[in-house]
Design a protein that fits this description.
The structure holds two protein chains of two kinds.
Chain A lengths: L1 H14 L3 H14 L4 H9 L1 H6 L3 H4 L10 E4 L9 H16 L4 E4 L5 H11 L5 E4 L4 H7 L8 E4 L9 E6 L1 H15 L4 E8 L2 H17 L4 E8 L8 H13 L4 E5 L3 H12 L2 E6 L10 E7 L1 H11 L6 E5 L6 E3 L11 H16 L7 H4 L8
Parallel strand pairs in A: 1-2, 1-3, 3-4, 4-5, 5-11, 6-7, 6-8, 8-9, 9-10
Antiparallel strand pairs in A: 10-12
Helix pairs in contact in A: 2-3, 6-13, 7-8, 9-10, 9-14, 11-12
Chain B lengths: L1 H32 L7 H19 L2 H25 L4 H24 L22 H4 L5 H9 L4 H19 L1 H11 L1 H6 L4 H27 L11 H11 L4 H20 L3 E3 L2 E3 L1 H16 L21
Antiparallel strand pairs in B: 1-2
Classes of the chains: A alpha/beta, B mainly alpha.
Chain lengths: ~375, ~325
């Protein structure tokens, strides 16, 4: 434990400066945990090198048996209580049920994306599952070099490479449903939206939400804010709190947070100030029971679980997971049961069916990079 | 009247946002006035944020949390002092190392203790600093103008906010009206003179670094246990660096530091309240407001608005004999 601690501490210090050394030291690290005398000597000799290894060296101690799946988390980190945690949950469920093992890495900087991909591909992991739109460019650079390896890209749908399974979620449809609930729960006639980093994907969330709210109450006032324009916006709960307070002072009494770790601050402040909040990606209802109206579920766990179950026989291509595929949805459990009226439940169920049947269409922000219901 | 209420709300938000900046800025002021540059403010705040939240979560007492936060920040200060005072290492590099160390350590220890992925459990009850309401705040809130200022703006912050603002006159008094302050400033300008007078340069610098640690500890604890209810990885989000910018902006003076921090806090608060500001046809995007603190600092550094001269012996380890 002490050794691990040391490795990681020093690794973090050197992390950003020694990306190149980490691919090398992976094997070194593998050797640390092998018991033979030979390796012990090697361990001593190369301790310095392994100290330079990135945090990943610790994360990867599971060892790289042939054709284990691999999972690359996005910058928010494995336990963001949201997007990445959903992937982690799917992967752990797969490992529990099948007894299989998988490799994983939490990248710490943009530069690690491509390296992590290559590293896993070289070591024979298959399939390699990547999280987040940020992996699109690294994937297009790497995937073609490993035609026999299958890649999975969550939140990427626009690449033209044969060995990638690209999974897109219809976030606007799920957000539409929570928007309806927000509008029905709101007494002030003002609802709020707090996004993380200002990127099209988050506007896509906000746009669906606004359409849902307006479908219930055409006169509703929607206050929308973005936390920032850099990746730091995913982990700034203090700013999330201030935004929440600002929106409350503008009359909002239900606030939807699509902001990763920043959302923790939003949900906390909303609970402190006695208004309702809506979680995102994972089920966040349990964070403040009775104060979180619902959560917009993005079943990343299902996508990851399915990909791992399929293993090397994974089907590639572009897949859309919407309401019909149960890729998105709203979270209903004991924690929010007192907040959800039968009328609300009925309206949401009806809207879900209407969207699936095509009677109601939710406009996607991507269609022409603008939203009919909300001005960002 | 509505405009006035919005105005008060923005100022209220300004105070909350400026407090961590002010504490970190004063921390840097002590350290840099004594000739020790400290870009590890960010790391110390982060470490203190984690340990205050962790101890408050385990013990249920926010005061123990505050002490733990200050202690952890002091340890990092000691490390910085050891590297840059005793071993005469490069102060910038030591500061960078502290930032990295804190970023990695906090998440690692948090994961090992709480297994919630580098967070602490949410704090509740006695684990958090609660707002202090001034007497009669409720009943006076109806009075026009003065009422909202008293009940919204001045009342209702946590005790650490008042501590932070009281630290400004205290710092001024210590630096300019006490023997210790005179020596502290002297050691940042001309350590050889201080040494000749028979006063310990090393001792003074360690004292300055320790004060810096205490203030950073309070700043971190404020973030995690007063503004928020728990620690989230990287939750300082660059506030240590904005505090450094404010320190330069204030030209290393306490009252000006408060002004700079309030200004930077105000810019943030405005950016948070009004996403894009429409000034009669010209729209100021929110990004411009976010960047303004840094732009202002560069302008000051470039010498357009007076000259920012750092303490003369800043950044140089003191060597008795050459």
């Amino acid at each position: 434990m002490v050794k691990n601690l040391l490795t990681t501490v020093v690794a973090n210090v050197l992390n950003s400066r020694h990306h190149n050394s980490y691919a090398r030291s992976q094997w070194v690290n593998g050797a640390i945990f092998a018991p033979t005398d030979n390796n012990k000597r090697e361990y001593k000799m190369t301790l310095m090198k392994s100290l330079m290894g990135a945090t990943t060296a610790v994360a990867l101690t599971a060892g790289a048996a042939l054709a284990d799946p691999a999972l690359i988390f996005d910058l928010g980190g494995k336990f963001d209580k949201s997007f990445n945690e959903a992937a982690h949950n799917g992967a752990s469920r797969w490992a529990e049920e099948t007894g299989g093992s998988y490799n994983e890495i939490e990248i710490q900087s943009e530069a690690q994306r491509e390296q992590a991909l290559r590293r896993f591909a070289e070591s024979g992991s298959n399939p390699i599952i990547t999280m987040g739109f940020g992996m699109a460019d690294p994937l297009s650079a790497v995937a073609a070099d490993y035609p026999d390896t299958k890649f999975v890209a969550v939140d990427v749908t626009w690449l033209d490479i044969p060995n990638i399974r690209q999974i897109g979620f219809a976030e606007h449809e799920g957000s539409y449903l929570v928007g309806m609930m927000a509008a029905m729960a709101s007494e002030s006639g003002t609802v709020g939206f707090i996004g993380g980093m200002d990127i099209p994907l988050i506007r896509h969330f906000g746009c669906g939400y606004a359409q849902g709210a307006k479908a219930v109450n055409p006169d509703i006032n929607i206050v929308a804010n973005m936390t920032g324009t850099t990746p730091a916006a995913w982990n700034d709960p203090v700013k999330g709190s201030e935004l929440t307070k600002a929106q409350i002072s503008q009359g909002a009494d239900v606030i939807y947070a699509a902001a990763g770790g920043t959302g923790v601050g939003v949900l906390q402040t909303a609970a402190d100030e006695g208004i309702l909040s809506i979680g995102v990606d994972s089920n966040q209802n349990h964070l403040h029971p009775g104060k979180v109206l619902t959560s917009m579920l993005k079943r990343v766990d299902v996508a990851v679980y399915d990909a791992m179950s399929a293993g090397e026989d994974l089907e590639t291509g572009v897949f859309q997971m919407g309401l019909a595929e149960e890729g998105v949805g709203v979270a209903m459990d004991d924690n929010n049961a007192p907040l959800v009226s039968d009328e609300m439940k009925g309206a949401v169920d009806k809207a879900r069916q209407d969207i699936i049947d095509g009677n109601v269409s939710v406009v996607s922000y991507y269609e022409n990079d603008s939203c009919p219901a909300l001005q960002f | 009247m509505e405009f006035f209420i919005t105005f008060i709300q923005v100022l209220d938000s300004t105070i909350r946002l400026a407090t961590p900046l002010l504490l970190a800025c004063l921390a840097g002021l002590y350290s840099e006035r004594a000739g020790i540059f400290d870009i590890g403010l960010e790391g110390k705040m982060l470490m203190a944020a984690f340990f205050s939240a962790a101890v408050a979560a385990v013990t249920g007492s926010v005061w123990l949390g505050l002490l733990a936060g200050i202690a952890s920040s002091l340890v990092l200060s000691g490390l910085h002092g050891l590297a840059s005072i005793t071993f005469r290492g490069n102060q910038l590099i030591s500061g960078v190392a502290i930032n990295f160390l804190a970023a990695g350590m906090t998440v690692l220890v948090a994961q090992s203790w709480f297994e919630q992925g580098g967070r602490t459990p949410s704090l509740f009850g006695g684990g958090r600093f609660t707002p202090i309401n001034f007497p009669f705040a409720e009943s006076l809130s109806g009075v026009p103008i003065i009422g909202p200022i008293y009940s919204e703006l001045l009342s209702g912050h946590s005790i650490l906010v008042y501590v932070a603002f009281l630290m400004v006159p205290a710092t001024w008094w210590i630096l300019y009206r006490t023997r210790f302050g005179l020596r502290l400033r002297a050691v940042g300008e001309n350590p050889a003179a201080v040494d000749t007078a028979g006063v310990s340069v090393v001792g003074l610098r360690y004292a300055a670094v320790a004060i810096c640690g205490v203030l950073c500890g309070i700043a971190g604890a404020y973030l995690a246990t007063a503004l928020q209810a728990g620690f989230v990885k990287d939750m300082t989000a660059g506030r240590g660096f904005i505090a450094l910018a404010a320190l330069i902006f204030a030209k290393w003076r306490p009252w000006h530091a408060m002004g700079a921090c309030l200004l930077f806090g105000l810019l943030q608060a405005i950016a948070l309240r009004f996403q894009n500001i429409d000034l009669g046809g010209v729209v100021i995007p929110v990004q411009a407001m976010d960047a303004l603190p840094y732009v202002l600092t560069v302008v000051i550094l470039a010498g357009f608005v007076g000259k920012a001269v750092p303490p003369r012996a800043g950044g140089e380890p003191y060597v008795k004999e050459r």
